[in-house]
Amino acid sequence: MAAVWPAPSIGRQVADKGAGSKLNGSPAERVCYNPTEPNLLTQMTVPRLATAQTGPVLSLEKQILDGMPRIEHWFRGQWQEHAAPFYASVDLRNSGFKLAPVDTNLFPGGFNNLNKEFLPQGVQAVMTAIEKVCPDARGFLVIPENHTRNIYYLQNVAALQNILQLAGVKVRIGSLLPEIAAPTALDLPDGKKLVLEPLVRRGNRLGLADFDPCTILLNNDLSAGVPDILKNLEQPVIPPLYAGWSTRLKSNHFAAFKEVAEEFAGLLGIDPWLINPYFATCGEINFQEHVGEECLAGWVDHILTQTRAKYREYGIQYEPFVIVKADAGTYGLGIMTVKDASEVQGLSRKQRNKMAVVKEGLQVSNVMVQEGVYTFETVNDGVAEPVIYMIDHFVVGGFYRVHTQRGVDQNLNAPGMHFEPLAFEDSCSLPDLDGNPDCAPNRFYAYGVVARLALLASAMELERMEAALEQQSFPQARAANT
Amino acid sequence: MAAVWPAPSIGRQVADKGAGSKLNGSPAERVCYNPTEPNLLTQMTVPRLATAQTGPVLSLEKQILDGMPRIEHWFRGQWQEHAAPFYASVDLRNSGFKLAPVDTNLFPGGFNNLNKEFLPQGVQAVMTAIEKVCPDARGFLVIPENHTRNIYYLQNVAALQNILQLAGVKVRIGSLLPEIAAPTALDLPDGKKLVLEPLVRRGNRLGLADFDPCTILLNNDLSAGVPDILKNLEQPVIPPLYAGWSTRLKSNHFAAFKEVAEEFAGLLGIDPWLINPYFATCGEINFQEHVGEECLAGWVDHILTQTRAKYREYGIQYEPFVIVKADAGTYGLGIMTVKDASEVQGLSRKQRNKMAVVKEGLQVSNVMVQEGVYTFETVNDGVAEPVIYMIDHFVVGGFYRVHTQRGVDQNLNAPGMHFEPLAFEDSCSLPDLDGNPDCAPNRFYAYGVVARLALLASAMELERMEAALEQQSFPQARAANT
After folding, report:
1. Mind listing the pLDDT tens digit for each residue in B152-166?
2. Calpha distance B228→B220 (Å, rounded)
3. Closest CA relative to residue A110, chosen from A77, A157, A147, A150
4. Which of A167, A345, A446, B41 could covalently link to B31 via disulfide, CB atoms 3.0 to 4.6 Å apart?
5. Is the pLDDT of residue B93 over 50?
């Protein structure tokens, strides 16, 4: 289904439309915050970003801009208390009425998609990160995913290697693949080569035949579990092994995000729902054997009911939906868009197969039900969602994930997607405080703020995992904001 | 005298030209490091930088590039031990055979000249600086120079204010001028306004009538001394008051730089002279009354002799010169180019007047004699020298100071200079490690490294001033590397 704005199916008309219509522009209008204009929603010119972006923008963006000094002061305090992950990417969805993270990746794989102009910021952020984490580091060993035929992923690894090298560290790539028995140069489209080398473990140190790195940097999300060769290393492993998908749960992340969002919303005096999707979890699901379907249906209904109430409160005339996805895992497998609880009962064999297994054969048993956030951004003819990249606690770039074959209520991280690396003409850290008509920078500042909230949630999530590990009770933590 | 390369007067032919000719390309050749080419000096294409830059580049640049991981590792260690000043700019001179700092400004006044593309790096660096210096800061009060009619300087203040605001702090400008008795909006060429406001002191806190800032940021070099209103404040003052020209001495800076340069040169295995100009100081000079001329002539001769020996060692066929300047002060007043000791004896009345007083009437009594470094860079028809801007320990931009009416052996910081803000197309932090033919980024990386060495020297200089102040023995420190 190729659905682009204004295609989303409109649900029932909301009764108290007048009272709740905080959004009162036509959704086809292009709107932005303009401080000289007293109304919250004012016209904006086409952002330099070459999109057909049309969603109404809530006062959220205005409040984020107005609150900038308070926000940055608050972030400074947070980063004094919580150590940001070395790097992360956050998928956002912007429905105009809501701007929220829907996934936070601690092993980001799209550095090749960042605008080249962001490179200096990335290098500077890596310098800061290294100073904090391992100031004495001279050499990094990067452990990538095992996708030796995915040219895009290989370009990501090369881009990451380049950023690290430009920050002044020696960087080599060690592969977990047994077939990499000797240094193997893979050709990249730009004519350069990426050299994968066989890992060599000596006692509790990991390296290459002629390379003893100070630090191991994982760009592998460990969906298949933690390989023995990575266990009990004396070198620091960044991010920590427990950040991998064999132990990490999305629900722990969003439980932390709920706390962050509530504190942040308190700071700005806004409804936390504007940045935080509802969610719930179901354990012990077995799609193949129809085990747990009723529990799942119950939570789907609960989240839809909560969302419907919020849509009514704000006079939003769209049909609520939820996303059902594995609580552990990535790569857009095992993700369903659901608009009614009945849809998760009596799933077809094809649907069950799709949901039952995610990347690298990891079985789905814990499932997360998350309020769906429409994305009303489009790039050319594709539905688009912004992806924000961070190193340490700095936004270092972003791009749009675009899918021309998906709808505004669907997961875009799926085969057929592409990236618009040039989309962010302006840095996310540079709002135009004078609010000139081309306000793309302002929108991107808001994106950077919400992405950093998700990053902060990850910092807290990882702290708690570490604490739980120390108490041997890991990974029992479960949470929901229902 | 409008002198551009290859106009510098060539002194005597050096006897052992063959033995010492580490520089053996024609100076008119355009050269750069290319790792695939075994010779140190290889051809490069025209840098994107639109200059007629032609100087021969010594192996220094190659060694800096090759040493990058060692250099960055070393810097990381240094910044663990020494706190970088909040901001600084460094004037460099690049003669091809030598790349050295000649002035380090702790109250940089050219933020308006930076390429707009550097802004995100500047903002990120300010964020880091604030986190270190005053993480709880919400409001900064900037104290600028008293140049209300210098539109360029006002633009600098506006640019600085913008960077700070983008980092999320409230920034207002408080003027030391008594005539600023009420908020005064000054028009800027871009249509914006800079608002200067009268300072209000309440007890030991400095602010504005309706603004109680957390931090005072000086963009005033205190040449006229420390005003009472700035003394004994309970708020942090950045940079510290003792960094002003009423107490700071260039010779203390270059004494620290000598140590830094020697350690760095040891790291790379190079002659420290390649990055460090010889210098000496004479105290108790009174130009008007011809007091101290003999002492000065003696040091001039000494530095010229040392420099001549180095030129001979390296087969450099130019005439050595020294720069005689006030040990305290700025703005390019009180600066002479001298090629023979006799020139500083029997100065004309005009020359004496020029040397005797620098900015804001500060009397010259301590004089520094510094080895002159030719600048063989030109931008269009003007002699050019790079100026590198740093915030915290990050390079955040740079530009060329250009003077079409000055020679390659003269101070360019003088009336008639202009700036080429677009000169640095590439960031100083991004060398092209694959050494592609357009190697402007590589040269700029080297500039960033040498500028950071000067920054490190400033960090040490300020530490020592603080220690000396605590011992009440300040500012007695004198040093020379002779």
Report:
1. 999 999 999 999 999
2. 14
3. A157
4. B41
5. yes
With a pLDDT cut of 70, the percent of chain A lying above it is: 78
Between B120, B130, B429, which is nearest A76 by CB?
B130
* Set of chain A residues whose Cβ sits within 8 Å of the Cβ of B394: 124, 127
- For chain A, the residue count is 482
Report pLDDT digits (tens) over A247-271.
899 999 999 999 999 999 999 999 9
b/e string for B42-75 if b means 16 or more Cβ within 10 A?
A: bebeebebebebbbbbbbbbbbbbebbbebbbbb
**CB neighbour class for A363 (10 Å; exposed up to 12, middle 13-18, buried from 19):** middle
DSSP annotation of A142 reads E
Range of the domain at A198: 115-243
The CATH number of residue B126's host domain is 3.40.50.11280
Query: Does any domain span residue A32?
Result: no
In a domain, A61, yes or no: no
Q: How far is A206 from chain B (nearest CA, A)?
A: 20
What does the alpha-carbon distance between residue B25 and residue B33 come to, in Å, rounded to a whole number? 13
> Which H helix or E strand runs over A250?
helix A250-268
> Lowest-confidence range among A251-265, B82-96, B440-454?
B440-454
ipTM: 0.76
Q: Which residues contact A357 (CB under 8 A, 6 or more apart)?
A: A333, A334, A363, A364
Which residue out of B118, B123, B127 would a mutagenesis test of the A interface target, given it has the greatest number of A Cβ atoms within 10 Å?
B127
- Tokens standing for B224? 């006229």
Chain A contact set for B73 (CB, 8 A): 136-138, 168-169
Domain count, chain B: 1
CA angle B330, B335, B338 (to 5 degrees): 155
Is B33 part of any domain? no
Q: Are strands A279-282 and A367-371 parallel, antiparallel or unpaired?
A: antiparallel
B75 assigned to some structural domain:
no
Task: Give the C-alpha separation, A455 to B398, whole Å.
Answer: 32
CB of B343 within 8 A of CB of B301?
A: no
β-pairing, A184-187 vs A193-198, is antiparallel
Q: How far is A424 from chain B (nearest CA, A)?
A: 13
